[in-house]
Design goal:
With about 250 residues, this protein is of the alpha/beta class. Helix content is about 35%, strand content about 25%. It has two domains: about 170 residues, P-loop containing nucleotide triphosphate hydrolases (Rossmann fold), CATH 3.40.50.300; about 80 residues, no CATH class. The strands form two sheets. It has a six-stranded mixed beta sheet with strand order 6-7-8-3-9-10, with helices on both faces. A four-stranded antiparallel beta sheet has the order 2-1-4-5, covered by helices on one side. Helix 3 packs across helix 5. The structure holds adenosine-5'-triphosphate and magnesium ion. The site of adenosine-5'-triphosphate (ATP) has 12 residues, from strand 2 and helix 1.
Length: about 250
Amino acid sequence: MAQTANSKYALSIENLTVQFGGLLALQNVDIAVPTGSRYGILGPNGAGKTTLFNVISGFVKPTKGQVYLHGVDISKHPPHERVKYGLARTFQITTLFPELSVLENILMAALVQSGTSRVFWKPAHKDKVAVSIAETQLHDLALMHLADKTVNELAYGEQRLLEIAVALASNPRVLLLDEPTAGLSTAEIKAVVQLVNSLPKDLTIVMIEHDLDVIFDISEYLSVLHGGQAIAHGPASEIRHDERVKEVYLGES
Ligand SMILES: Nc1ncnc2c1ncn2[C@@H]1O[C@H](COP(=O)(O)OP(=O)(O)OP(=O)(O)O)[C@@H](O)[C@H]1O
Ligand SMILES: [Mg+2]
């Protein structure tokens, strides 16, 4: 696949293989995510979905293959440099600071992700410009009412919303969400879907998700992983009717 800086793909993964000892977690996977699209990654437990995100964000070194962000080969870049290139992610396991307020969590994220070498967060808390940017962000995400609550005081669903807000604090062009609705109630899932659907249309979003209603609600395109292999790609409306996908994932035949 030819790549240029103006690639129509925000993210592309080429011929990706990841081997953990004797286990092939990913095998020759190719995925091309159109710029500004909502892209879902579907697949059963152990399919290699999180490993894919770990490779894209630089936490796992692939055995083989390349990762391109807007046409630039970032395969050799460490995670923090990928953030500077416009990549952000959430994790399957929550990574918030429980004793800090929602606003402080956003400020911390903005500081850390901007690569600012300030060690303490307190000066940032007094930095009126940084506070105002963080408040605007919370306001845009309709989370301003939570600003002064500590993470400890939040409901689990609110914490998952905050994780997305934290990932957005670096002002990414590509956002990776790893199972943002896992463990949530129906009402909380709705809030996550609403927040994701409210994000700017030029932000490219790649989302791992088990909840089929959510994935079909949000995604325009899907890739389906199974046993480390990408068994189907395409528009969500087509994948829904793909015989192989129905068989191995949707449990139909
Ligand atoms: N760092 C690692 N070292 C060794 N094996 C790993 C490592 N990370 C993942 N694996 C294995 O690779 C396979 C794929 O794991 P991965 O976490 O990518 O799956 P997943 O599709 O995200 O599953 P889930 O839906 O349960 O989150 C699994 O068999 C897992 O045990
Ligand atoms: Mg996973």
